[in-house]
UniProtKB/TrEMBL annotation:
Residues 29-127 form the Cytochrome c domain. InterPro entries: Cyt_c-like_dom, Cyt_c-like_dom_sf, Multihaem_cyt_sf. The keyword Methyltransferase does not apply. The keyword Heme applies. It comes from the Bacteria. Keywords: Heme, Iron, Membrane, Metal-binding, Signal, Transmembrane, Transmembrane helix. This is C-type cytochrome. Pfam families: Cytochrom_C. Residues 1-27 form the signal peptide. It comes from Kaistella yananensis. The chain crosses the membrane at residues 162-179, 218-239.
Length: 456
């Protein structure tokens, strides 16, 4: 009887030790620190609740124990140097590598054992988001923007009512004055004169002979106004400042270039090396959105919500034939019919690289001198406006010949550039002698006004 009780007690102690050891696997790290480390090192390829480039990592410790009977020591080896683990002949390491298209995971030798334990604790027991932070991430910005939009709408409505009431009052005043004038005229006329005026017939010929100078003058003025109107209309054909068409996939430059500080040339790469700044292909979008399948930013445009942005990301997947569940391309693609905004006429030659590379510093400096209240840091903004603040890109300038010529007349050539300093040395010396030592070389002085530079 005593022997049985001893074995029973020993069994309870062993079970207790086993449970405490098992629990310690999940409680040996700091989940909050693990969340920071996960976002910094793992989030590009992994998520807790779905497969991205790599498998989902939610509950990976428990899953690995149940399916492969492997503990956290294996995960430590895999995270620090998965290549060495595969080369050692580890069967499961090779299986994972083969399963995910032989995509080699980056080694993380810089992570300490405690760092990895923190990450694993986060994958096992992720901390609940703080209510204040969650509210700010989902609704704070949207609420602020909505309130601002509502206030603007109220002001506009009040202004409209004031204008309408003013117009009605002016109309009523004019009508009252007209009635009073009619009464005065009637008082000043005798009965005989009123009867005579009522029966008298006046011919158009008499009126014309009497007032022909006035008539001719009016016709001349109308002719001049008509000619000016036609000329002005012709001059503005093809000028679409403010044009901002709706695109098949909603793309907010404010979110990408403004909130996330993405360089313009990451997407419009040919602007630096070619004549045309092309529309980026959908593969460029997929460089980021292969792993970014939902919008978790703080900024929300008024009238838009997270579901809207997530839906637009799904349009990218449909266009490229990307299956986010299997993390593979299906081959079923759809063309995206983007609406072009900026389009130079065929008879105009414009080279982006010449302005973006050779003229970059000169254009930025000239723009900031002329517009000290709206300085720019990227040369693209000189022509395209503050794109990083636009939810929907619009044509920010006239893009007329006069607009271009004015820029060439006021933009100074960057003489700090070694090439320009040597190439235009003689011209600069000549201008100094002619106009004084303080003279500057502007683009028009080096051929910026020659017709053949843009039309040939």
């Amino acid at each position: 009887m005593i022997s049985w009780r001893k074995h029973y007690k020993r069994g309870l102690i062993a079970i207790g030790l086993l449970l405490s050891t098992s629990a310690s696997i999940y409680a040996q790290g700091d989940a909050k620190n693990g969340e920071k480390l996960f976002k910094a090192n793992c989030a590009a390829c992994h998520a807790l609740d779905k497969q991205l480039i790599g498998p989902s990592l939610g509950g990976v410790v428990d899953r690995l124990k149940k399916e492969q009977n492997l503990d956290t020591d294996w995960l430590h080896k895999w995270i620090k140097d998965n290549k060495s683990l595969r080369e050692s002949g580890d069967k499961y390491a090779i299986e994972v590598y083969e399963k995910f298209n032989k995509t080699e995971m980056l080694p993380f030798p810089n992570l300490t054992d405690q760092d990895i334990d923190d990450i694993l604790e986060y994958t096992t027991n992720p901390p609940a988001p703080e209510p204040a932070a969650a509210d700010a991430a989902t609704g704070g910005a949207a609420d602020t923007n909505s309130v601002a939009a509502l206030e603007a709408a109220k002001k506009e409505s009040v202004n409209s009512k004031i204008i309408l009431i003013s117009l009605v009052a002016i109309g009523a005043l004019l009508l009252w004055l007209l009635l009073k004038l009619q009464q005065l005229v009637k008082l000043q006329q005798s009965e005989e004169l009123s009867e005579l005026n009522a029966n008298r017939a006046v011919s158009l010929g008499d009126l014309y002979r009497k007032y022909h100078y006035v008539g001719k003058g009016v016709l001349v003025v109308l002719g001049v106004l008509a000619a000016y109107g036609i000329w002005n209309w012709l001059m503005w054909i093809g000028v679409y400042k403010g044009y901002k068409p709706e695109q098949p996939i909603y793309f907010s430059h404010k979110i990408h270039a403004g909130e996330n500080k993405i360089d313009c040339q990451l997407c419009h790469s040919s602007a630096k090396y070619g004549k045309v700044s092309e529309i980026p292909s959908m593969n460029v979008c997929m460089n980021c959105h292969r792993t970014i399948s939902e919008y978790n930013g703080k900024y929300m445009e008024p009238g838009k919500d997270k579901a809207f942005y997530d839906g637009e990301i799904q349009k990218i997947y449909a266009a490229t034939g990307w299956d986010p569940a299997s993390q593979q391309y299906t081959g079923k693609t759809q063309p995206v019919e983007w609406v072009r905004i900026h389009n130079m006429p065929d008879f105009v030659y414009f080279d982006h690289s010449q302005h973006v590379v050779a003229g970059e510093q000169a254009i930025i400096s000239s723009h900031n001198k002329k517009n000290p209240e709206a300085k720019i840091d990227v040369v693209c903004k000189a022509c395209h406006g503050q794109v990083d603040t636009m939810n929907v890109v619009q044509m920010a300038n006239d893009f007329t010949m006069g607009w271009c010529i004015e820029c060439h007349r006021t933009t100074e050539v960057d003489m700090n550039n070694g090439y320009n300093k040597e190439y235009f040395k003689n011209l600069h010396d000549k201008l100094k002698k002619q106009y004084g030592s303080g003279t500057k070389i502007t683009v028009d002085a080096i051929g910026g006004l020659e017709c053949g530079k843009c039309h040939y």
